[in-house]
Specification:
Elements: H1 25-38, E1 56-61, H2 67-78, E2 82-87, H3 99-107, E3 113-118, H4 123-130, E4 136-142, H5 148-162, E5 169-173, H6 180-191, E6 196-200, E7 216-218, H7 221-225, E8 230-233, H8 249-256, H9 260-263, E9 271-273, H10 286-289, H11 296-321
Parallel strand pairs: 1-2, 1-3, 3-4, 5-6, 5-8, 6-7, 8-9
The structure holds N-carbamoyl-L-aspartate (NCD).
Length: 326
Amino acid sequence: MPADNIQLDENGKLLHFLSIEGLNQTILTEILDTAESFTSIADRQVKKVPILRGKTVANLFFEPSTRTRSTFELAEQRLSADILSLNVDTSATTKGESLLDTLRNLEAMQIDMFVIRHQDSGSAHFFAQHVRPGVSVLNAGDGQHAHPTQAMLDMFTIRHFKKDFSQLRVAIVGDILHSRVARSQIHALNILNTAEVRVVAPRTLLPVDTESLGVHVYNNLEKGLKDIDVVIMLRLQKERMRGALLPSEKEYFRLYGLSQEKLKNAHPDAIVMHPGPANRGVEIESSVMDGNQSVILNQVTFGISVRMAVMSMIVGQSRQQSGEES
Ligand code: NCD
């Protein structure tokens, strides 16, 4: 999608962060390395650096969020930004104002950076195409399309525990069809040269063109987990399902739920991940979620540093553009 290129300037530096598609290995690695440098800030007595001092960030969440919204807000606070978090339920969009009018009104408040989550695929691109030059847009999840900061915190988690992507087999299990997270993860894993990326799902929860994304498709969980180093479980996104795509949750758990028993098919030192929110007993057994192979809470922690990294890379760029020192 050429529209993805609006996230980079002519020198390949980040202006917006809209999707993993269209980015290269150098920039993804720079995000991971920059995030690494931010992890120690959490251990300081004063958990703050002045990188976004004087900048105003607006968080626009048109869909529910727990982890993404709070870790974006913490990342912004740790970078010393001024923050406006718009409660979309009570905002004028529910009174019929268009997305573009909402944007224009917020721009009139001199916002420097927008973090947006919206139910429509393409909404973050739309925002980025319409903001004034120098204003940045970060996609916190658009419809079924992309969730690039989630994918990057997942890559950070994988690199932290497993080091070298070129030696790894990764399986993404569950509702791939409705998952913006899976799409972004697949692009990131391939850009980072992962040895093998598998998706494991019933046929009804796979997009028609899955193989063209550069993955191996499995419909059987035991087979799909064989020799796997990283297992990423996904939630059944029932709010996006039209009609019955599944017999029952019980049957789904029997076939595709990650139990201790099924996890034995993977490498003994495989890590188990989940972007959240997780449904215990539906896609993942409680004991696996709390077990010693689970790194699900580490993902949440790393989300702060990764979001700090992306925002600081974007600001570094716009500071140079405006001739300010970095
Ligand atoms: C995901 C999302 O919203 O796309 N969650 C998240 O951001 N951590 C996945 C989901 O809702 O299942």
